[in-house]
């Protein structure tokens, strides 16, 4: 039996089209066939986690049951009358929720690249959904635990492998209702456009950069045994491949969600037009950066300010930027280049804020016009591409691989 | 109720350096007057000055993005 990576090949799209047409007809006539939606979800999960991948399928089932029990337990604790809402129980619950992900991320680093047996495609993205649900349950914003809805949310198949990361309260609202016909027709229109834009991004542009251009450049860069312009070329080509591949995937995931009447949030908003690094993180992998903003950065700031840990607001922000982005680096994987990537972006955010403050203070002498804006976009683009060169791990191959400098 | 309005406007004035008395529908995020840092400060000030206990996850940017909406939210939470 074969297996299918989501949106990986034409056959997957044919299955997808056949499976969602009945669902779409239902939605057009004001019904959401929830039973049918569950059946096709299982079908697509089996396509990805079955066949030769059955072991990861077992890992997914085990993980899923574990998290359902954990969130159910915590919700029960929070929702019983007069809940003490103890901080340590909350912290323990979050730790228990991320333990499986930590094991999966750390195993390759300590066992020479061997993958953990409890891992499966998309474990990080489900973990994000679990952790945010626990946090909102702690805050009393999520008031009841509904195992079926929560399960649907965690395993929503269009976004299972790499997001975008939805929010439980948002998902629940969409899942429970059927959009008005006019609204749904708009969703179909946008959804179809996204899917076709995704084809262009992933199968034409990303293919050109990643499969046609990249291997040659990579070989030349490695053969130079030292610095060569091919490293710079690799940096841009890799950055383009990364964007078009991931943005293409995200367009598929959002487009298919729309066709199913679920408004999964978008992941990219023309990131290479960013005027500064902060702007970049509001446009690049948005559901991830917003997740980090809402569930790590803002909570850290809140904690530090409330307990007056640092005297100044600036120090608080800077410390939180670096911690936030470092955690993002560690989340990507336990290698020096991912962690450096995180640190790099943390520092870039600190420098960015410092510059903006300086500029505001001296706005009468520092020019601001179309030309400086263009320069800002150019500079941000290059800083970002350089960070992707770190992220790519290519420097690791150059410095420590068999063909090293 | 006017008290809430005045307090919110004075907190926003401290945070952004702008007076919103006549500009209650200005979008604070689109105009980049408020960011995540400012948001947290706003929440803490609301807690200190008005006793509103709004956790970070209550904060849906679409529901809190203008002074008028913030005032409405605070009044709703005070009841």
Short summary:
Chain A is mainly α and 405 residues long. Chain A has 15 helices and no strands.
Secondary structure: number of strands of chain A: 0
Q: Could you spell the SSE succession of chain A in H and E letters? A: HHHHHHHHHHHHHHH
Helix percentage range of chain A: over 70%
**Structural classification of chain B:** mainly alpha
Number of domain modules of chain A: 3
Distance between the termini of chain B: 11 Å
Helical/strand content category of chain A: mainly alpha
Q: State the separation between the terminal residues of chain A, measured CA to CA.
A: 44 Å
The biggest beta sheet of chain A is recorded as: none
Q: Which CATH top level class of chain B fits?
A: Mainly Alpha
Low-confidence parts of chain A, pLDDT < 50 over ≥5 residues? none
Structure in words:
Chain A: Pathway: Cell wall biogenesis; lipoteichoic acid biosynthesis. Chain A: It is an enzyme of class 2 (transferase). Chain A: Its EC number is 2.3.1.-. The complex is a heterodimer of chains A (405) and B (79). In chain A, 73% of the residues lie in helices and 0% in strands. Chain A is an all-alpha fold. In chain A, helix 11 crosses helix 12. The longest helix of chain A is centred in the middle third of the chain and has 43 residues, at 181-223. The model of chain A has no long low-confidence stretch (mean pLDDT 95). Chain B is an all-alpha fold. Chain B has one domain: Non-ribosomal Peptide Synthetase Peptidyl Carrier Protein, Chain A. In chain B, helix 1 packs antiparallel against helix 2 and helix 1 (2-16) packs across helix 3. The N and C termini of chain B lie close together (11 Å). The mean pLDDT of chain B is 86. Classes of the chains: A mainly alpha (405), B mainly alpha (79).
């Amino acid at each position: 039996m074969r297996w299918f990576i989501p949106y990986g090949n034409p056959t997957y799209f044919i299955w997808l089209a056949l499976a969602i047409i009945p669902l779409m007809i239902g939605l057009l006539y004001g019904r959401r066939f929830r039973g049918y939606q569950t059946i096709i979800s299982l079908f697509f999960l089996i396509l990805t986690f079955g066949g030769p991948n059955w072991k990861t399928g077992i890992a997914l089932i085990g993980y899923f049951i574990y998290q359902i029990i954990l969130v159910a337990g915590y919700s029960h604790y929070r929702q019983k009358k007069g809940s003490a809402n103890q901080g340590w129980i909350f912290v323990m619950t979050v730790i228990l929720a991320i333990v499986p992900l930590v094991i999966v991320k750390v195993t390759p680093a300590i066992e020479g690249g061997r993958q953990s047996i409890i891992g499966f495609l998309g474990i990080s993205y489900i973990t994000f959904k679990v952790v945010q649900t626990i946090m909102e349950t702690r805050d009393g914003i999520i008031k009841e635990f509904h195992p079926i809805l929560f399960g649907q949310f965690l395993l929503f198949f269009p976004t299972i492998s790499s997001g975008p990361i939805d929010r439980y309260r948002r998902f629940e609202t969409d899942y429970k209702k059927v959009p008005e016909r006019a609204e749904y027709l708009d969703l179909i229109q946008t959804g179809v456009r996204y899917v076709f834009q995704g084809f262009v991004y992933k199968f034409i542009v990303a293919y050109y950069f990643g499969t046609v251009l990249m291997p040659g450049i990579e070989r030349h860069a490695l053969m130079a045994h030292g610095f060569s312009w091919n490293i710079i070329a690799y940096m841009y080509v890799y950055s383009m491949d990364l964007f078009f591949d991931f943005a293409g995937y995200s367009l598929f995931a959002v487009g298919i969600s729309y066709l199913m009447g679920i408004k999964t949030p978008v992941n990219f908003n023309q990131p290479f037009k960013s005027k500064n690094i902060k702007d970049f993180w509001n446009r690049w992998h948005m559901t991830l950066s917003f997740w980090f903003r809402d569930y790590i950065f803002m909570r850290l700031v809140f904690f530090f300010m409330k307990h007056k840990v640092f005297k100044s607001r600036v120090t608080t922000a800077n410390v939180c930027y670096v911690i936030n982005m470092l955690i993002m680096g560690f989340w990507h994987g336990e290698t020096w280049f991912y962690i450096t990537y995180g640190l790099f972006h943390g520092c870039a955010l600190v420098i960015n804020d410092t510059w903006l403050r300086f500029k505001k203070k001296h706005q009468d002498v520092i020019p601001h016009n179309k030309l400086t804006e263009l320069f800002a976009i150019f500079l941000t683009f290059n800083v970002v591409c350089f960070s992707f060169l770190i992220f790519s791990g290519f420097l690791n191959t150059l410095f420590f691989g068999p063909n090293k400098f | 109720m006017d008290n809430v309005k005045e307090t919110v406007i004075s907190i926003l004035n401290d945070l952004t350096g702008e007076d919103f008395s006549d500009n209650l529908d200005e979008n604070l995020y689109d105009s980049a007057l408020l960011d995540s840092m400012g948001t947290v400060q706003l929440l803490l000030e609301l807690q200190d000055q008005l006793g509103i206990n709004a956790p970070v996850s209550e904060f849906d940017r679409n529901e809190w993005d203008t002074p008028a909406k913030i005032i409405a939210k605070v009044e709703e939470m005070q009841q």
